[in-house]
Structures are given as C-alpha cells and as structure tokens.
Specification:
Blueprint: E1 5-9, H1 14-23, E2 28-33, H2 36-48, E3 54-57, H3 63-70, E4 76-79, H4 94-122, E5 125-130, H5 143-163, E6 168-175, H6 182-185, H7 190-193, H8 217-226, E7 235-238, H9 240-252
Parallel strand pairs: 1-2, 1-4, 2-3, 4-5, 5-6, 6-7
Length: about 260
C-alpha cells in the first residue's frame, strides 16, 4: 500500500491515538490535538513509542487552526474528534448540546469541505468518519452523543455517493462504546451540571452505559487496517458483540410499539 499523508482530528487520546501511533509506521501521520497541553503530551508519548509523526494544535472551533489543517495537503482525512455528553436528552443543558454538534459534526464537516476541493483536483482522496455503535442506535442517557453520530452517518452516506465520481472514497468506522478517557470525552460531565439542575429524568446508577473494555487492541487493529484502505467496506464495526447488539436494536425498532410495549 502506498504511503499516505493522513490527518487525524482529535487523536491525542483513546482509540484514535493508538491507531495514529501504528499508522505512523507506514504513513506520514499528522495528529490534531485540541489544546497545547494535549499536543505536548502526545508528542512525548510518540517519542517514547519511537513513532515518527507530526502533532499540531487543531482546536476545531478555531478558524486559524482549521485553515492551517486544510493547508496540509492530506491524502486521507480521518474525522475522529468527539465529545460525549451523558444525561437524558431533555436534561443536558442546551449549550452542551450545541457544543457537541459544533465539535462532532459541524466543525469536522467544515474541515472536510475545505479539503475536498484539493482531493477533487487530484482526482483521489479518502475521508473516514469515526462514527460509533451509537451512530446506528441510541443508548439511553447518551442521546446527545448518539444524535451527533447519527448526523455523521447521514453525512458520510451522501458524501460517499456524491464524491465517488471524483475518485474520493468515504467510509465510516463504528467502534463499540468504550471508556477510554472520561476526562477527554465528557462521559461523566453530567456530574458537574446535574446537581445544579432540576432534572426531569435523573441518571440511573451505573449510567451512562460506557463499557470498560480490557483489550482495545483488536479495535485499534481494525481501525488501522480500514483507514488507508481505499477498497475497505463502507462500514467497519468492532467488536463483534457490538455488531450483534446494534442489529438487535435496529430490528426491535421495527417491532416495538411507541409506548415501549412489544
């Protein structure tokens, strides 16, 4: 496989970080971190792993950072950045709902729209959206996150059809729900705002349902294989139990009544 210039947003932690370090063995990888602290920390992590890659600040809500990222001339754009807000869909503060869509959807679509013309001129390129198991069904108390991932699924689907005639491939990667860094993802942010709110639907114990997976390496391996592969399946979902869980949830949507009864 030819060496590619890969830009990955939000890949200084979690599965994206693991994938970036491995992709750097065969490709020129640039990782975007949202803050200078994240940039410096990941540069040190890459140094310790003997991985040769570039780490740049890419605050997706910063116009200058977006413009700089769009100037890098990448072959493959991996839209990996995401924030996760836990809480019922009627309780999460609207400013956090808007921020989740701004980061997970709008800013990354903005970046893609800046880079697509370059790919069209070259008649080649690849865009990989890091979606989620939650992009195909919505777990309770993760509704805001799931809504952003559902939006990504729609965007990626139409992109794939519209950009295919120009030599640009589009794919999604849908990891199962994994607790990688709650400080980074905001999975537990409800602990900060919920005591200050008059909750309509209190968070049950043990929610949100973000699983602790002991071995994330098989997921990272699948991500590393899919990102540079122009002929990969359109959707890559890992692990297998996430595939089964998602298909079951989708089937139930056709048979369960609106009042929740079978």
């Amino acid at each position: 496989m030819a060496k590619q210039r890969i830009l990955m947003t939000g890949a200084t932690s979690g599965l994206g970080a693991g994938a970036a370090l491995e992709l750097a063995r065969d490709h020129h990888v640039t990782v975007g971190g949202g803050t200078w602290h994240e940039v410096r920390a990941f540069r040190e992590r890459a140094r310790q792993a003997d991985a040769r890659l570039d780490v740049v600040r890419l605050d997706l809500l910063n116009e200058s950072d977006l413009a700089y990222a769009a100037s890098l001339g990448v072959d493959t754009l991996v839209l990996n950045a995401a924030v996760l807000e836990g809480g019922s869909i009627v309780d999460v503060p609207m400013d956090l709902v808007r921020r989740a869509f701004d980061i997970n959807v709008f800013a990354q679509l903005d970046l893609a729209r800046r880079i697509v013309p370059q790919m069209m001129r070259r008649k080649r390129g690849r865009i990989v959206w890091m979606s989620s198991e939650a992009g195909l069904y919505a777990p309770p108390f993760l509704g805001v996150y799931a809504a952003t991932k559902h939006a990504i699924e729609a965007i990626a689907s139409v992109m794939r059809t519209e950009l295919r005639p120009f030599g640009i491939s589009v794919a999604t990667i849908n990891p199962g729900l994994v607790r990688t860094s709650s400080e980074q993802t905001g999975a537990e942010s409800y602990r900060y705002w919920s005591p200050l709110a008059d909750l309509l639907v209190p968070m049950p114990p043990g929610m949100p349902p973000v699983a602790l997976v002991q071995d994330q390496q098989p997921m990272i391996d699948a991500i590393v294989e899919a990102i540079p592969d122009q002929s990969s399946l359109y959707r890559t979902m890992v692990p297998e139990d996430a595939v089964a869980e998602t298909r079951l949830a989708q089937e139930l949507a056709w048979t369960t009544r609106s009042n929740g009864m079978p």
